[in-house]
Specification:
183 residues, 36% strand, three-stranded antiparallel beta sheet, binds inosinic acid, globular, 9 strands, alpha/beta, binds magnesium ion
């Protein structure tokens, strides 16, 4: 039986501090404007709820919408297909949209979601991610631009916590940790 172990990569305090920085950057860039934050479920739940609460409503008129996509099966390997399980409800035409994702891995999920959202003719679409694993990027998506990133890029670890899961487990950890399997 393989035993799972988790080593802390980013503590809850570090996450909170980096989200403060990101929130100030967003307030600055969208000052006096409206912003629809589209949370990619389920992984970005903690991220979007903490980040949105750090943005001052007197500076940016924040709205929250959700979309659900899955490119993963039950384990740790990315699948080739992206399924949309739940679509956005807000009227996005002519509005500023920010896709909020937990982690960019191959980039396929985000690429597909931004492609879909552009169909609604928003005035802008930006990408915001908690984490980035560029070494895993699909070669066809090597130019994918992440506009707002909470942490510097990480190595090819499998990470869990703060919304990120392994077969739906560990999302509720308050920190981000590296998951490994021991014999
Ligand atoms: P992509 O389409 O390959 O970029 O996959 C992105 C999605 O895969 C993310 O939204 C996560 O849900 C999941 N994912 C990728 N890497 C990890 C990881 O290290 N831990 C947990 N989930 C991950
Ligand atoms: Mg996800």
């Amino acid at each position: 039986m393989k035993k799972e172990s988790i080593e802390v990569l980013f503590t809850a305090d570090e996450i909170s501090r980096n989200l403060d920085t990101l929130a100030r950057q967003i307030e600055n860039d969208y000052l006096g404007q409206e912003l629809v934050m589209v949370s990619v479920l389920t992984g970005s739940m903690m991220f979007v709820s903490d980040l949105a609460r750090k943005i001052d409503n007197n500076k940016v008129d924040v709205r929250i919408d959700i979309i659900s996509a899955s490119s993963y099966g039950l384990g740790t390997e990315s699948g080739d297909r992206v399924n949309i399980n739940l679509d956005t409800r807000e009227h996005l035409k002519g509005r500023n949209v920010m896709v909020v994702e937990d982690i960019v891995d191959t980039g396929k999920t985000l690429n597909f979601i931004t492609y879909l959202l552009k169909y609604h003719q928003p005035s802008s679409v930006k990408i915001c991610a908690l984490l980035n694993k560029p070494s895993r990027r699909d070669p066809a998506l090597k130019d994918l631009k992440i506009d707002y990133l909470a942490f510097p890029s990480i190595e090819d670890y499998f990470v869990v916590g703060y919304g990120l899961d392994c077969a739906q487990k560990y999302r509720n950890l308050p920190y981000v940790g590296i998951l490994s399997f021991e014999e």
